[in-house]
């Protein structure tokens, strides 16, 4: 443990979202909060500034981010969409930086979507204006998936790839000469809780009970971000929920797991049993899609009993065989899962089913048929637009078909561009959106 009340001071920054469209759908900088928790546990003084947050007055665990229009970046000009900065205003962030107790010994900056890097650049530039002597370390998903780009263009002094827990303390010692004691290599159960209490907005708790995914779908980056699937002990998860509920009365909890339902008998089910047994008045959300094939009647019953309010299932497409880009679903799985969930008491509007559109070579009719099937099964189709991700199995194909030079600039990974369509088309998009909303079919 570092001694004294005034240990080294680390500022953790979650930059703004820069995009054509964005919505705070239970989004919090969980990875950064884990690192803040870890540093605090060994004696660092830590502060968190979350630029991608909503002002305290706005309601609910999710909602619209305030936005300010920005000039569209040069490579994307001509697209009929307005580019914006989402989150706190520039003045609020400047004020947040000015209020820091002193100049930080280092600044940790996180990153999420690869194509949000202009927000990372802007955040780092602002930090440099305020704290010219503080080294800036960038990590997170953009940094891991596009390390060369991040090294060349983010403005950070150091770009870290992969999970931050293992290398962060030695990195800080190297960069700023801090003498932190060697850390027992943390497993997921000995890791301190994320420093969620340092967020100004505590209306919703982001929770992860595992890291990585046992599967490997062609369009997904999970394996590249975390190579090994690991899970926390159920008791550890229950203890965390109890802790935050007791301390701050939190009720809304969003799971960020890639494979929350995997091996549920000795993982999620004991967690939910614990929540029900302890009568914790929580409400759960799964903004990241759940595995359809793993939902049976027993599990569905527990999801209802434990008060899951926002359910998203990851179907992606009803295509079968070689047309599928993943290995997570077999014929009949969706029918079985939805029947079990409805029997447990979930209503069609509770059951959002993600359908992936904009994949290379994907015909609109495939998406339309998936939409119809989801509607026939009395669930709600939710369209998710494909974002090509470097190093994934589908990347080369995406590069081949895209009208953009995907490899030249991560801005082109933006799913709002439909980068794998021959051109951007509001008509094409609107037709499928209407169909998903149940409008088009009725008019026919
Ligand atoms: C939860 C999640 C979401 C949440 C929101 C999360 C958030 N914070 O905003 C929701 C469900 C809303 C979401 C939405 C989307 N998502 Co998402 N999401 C994820 C997911 C599953 C987990 C991210 C996470 O928080 N992990 C948990 C924490 C603990 O890990 P972490 O943040 O990576 O942090 C660790 C390291 O990165 C590192 N680290 C992080 N910061 C720093 C800083 C420093 C200094 C250092 C040293 C280290 C470091 O250490 C941390 C601890 O180990 C990832 C997949 C994945 N496995 O990561 C996809 C992922 C990020 N999403 C992705 C996509 C495509 C989307 C969508 C576009 C989906 C769609 N088509 O609609 C939307 C767009 C969102 C929007 N608002 O517009 C892609 C990224 C695509 C891209 N081009 O970058 C991913 C990678 C999934 C995939 N398909 O492969 N997402
Ligand atoms: S199951 Fe989900 S998280 Fe796992 S590899 Fe496939 S898409 Fe990614």
* Largest sheet features: 6 strands, parallel
Helix content: 25-40%
Shape descriptor reads: globular
> How much is the average pLDDT?
93
Residue windows where pLDDT falls under 50 for at least 5 positions: none
Structural class: alpha/beta
Total helix count? 15
Distance between the termini: 69 Å
Question: What is bound: which ligands?
Answer: cobalamin, iron/sulfur cluster
Instruction: Give the total of beta strands.
Output: 16
The number of distinct structural domains comes to 2
Describe what you observe in this structure.
This protein folds into 2 domains: 9-176, Rossmann fold (3-Layer(aba) Sandwich); 204-443, Aldolase class I (TIM Barrel), CATH 3.20.20. The protein has helices at 30-41, 90-98, 117-130, 141-145, 147-153, 168-176, 222-225, 234-248, 268-277, 297-305, 333-343, 364-376, 395-401, 426-436, 439-443, and strands spanning 9-14, 17-19, 45-50, 67-69, 84-86, 106-109, 136-138, 158-159, 205-207, 210-211, 230-231, 252-255, 283-291, 308-316, 351-357, 380-385. Helix 12 links the parallel strand 15 and strand 16 (380-385). The protein contains 15 helices and 16 strands. Helix 8 runs parallel beside helix 9 (268-277). It is 32% helix and 16% strand. The strands form 4 sheets. It has a 6-stranded parallel beta sheet with strand order 9-12-13-14-15-16. A 5-stranded parallel beta sheet has the order 3-1-6-7-8, sandwiched between helices. A 3-stranded antiparallel beta sheet has the order 2-5-4. The model has no long low-confidence stretch (mean pLDDT 93). The protein has 444 residues and is α/β, with parallel strands linked by helices. Bound molecules: cobalamin (B12) and iron/sulfur cluster. Residues 22-23, 25-32, 34-35, 108-110, 112-115, 137-141, 144, 160, 163-165, 168, 208, 220-222, 225, 256, 258, 287-288, 384-385, 387, 389, 413, 415 line the site of cobalamin.
